[in-house]
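User: structure tokens for this one?
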Amino acid sequence: MPSRADSPTHHQPLKLVILGRDGTLNRYRDDHVKSPDELDPLPGALEAVARLNQAGWHTVLATNQPGIGRGLLDMQAVNAVHKRLNQLLQAKGGRLDAAFFCPHTPEDGCSCRKPLPGLLEEISQRFDVSLEAVHMVGASLRDLQTAQAAGCVPHLVRGDRLAALTEAQLQEMLAQVPGARLHDDLAAFAEDLLAADADEEAREC
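Assistant:
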């Protein structure tokens, strides 16, 4: 089951960003992040989340964790990693409102494993928000496809996971999901989103 936090009370539509984890917030590991000690935040990522939070954006994690299904780690280990991630975020003035994760392997045939939209639909229900106005940021084609399947605004970050790809390879990936936007990292995404916010506010004045 995904882990959850209480939904914040709100009167205006919730401003929500859904984040992938590995390669977006922290360095990607082929052997999974199995303990808090193996969690290595990417440069500027924690500060980017804090900037978003301070500008009124809520942030939620959506991550595949097939290491659970393969017996490489357990729910307790994943929760400990996410607790550590929140501690590091709090030190920067940021937070995650919730962490949703799929514990299954591809062979399990679940509906919550990205690129299927199950996790995002759960987030939509939990936070009572329409996914069309939600931004999803990840570091893989799978994340873009998840955003597309759920109807979110899709964003791709190079981070460390895609750093070896050429510009042509990245553009080929983006072309598979119309409307997908590319950013160097989470800090660049936050900068672009907050600039768009400022432009919208200026138009409304």
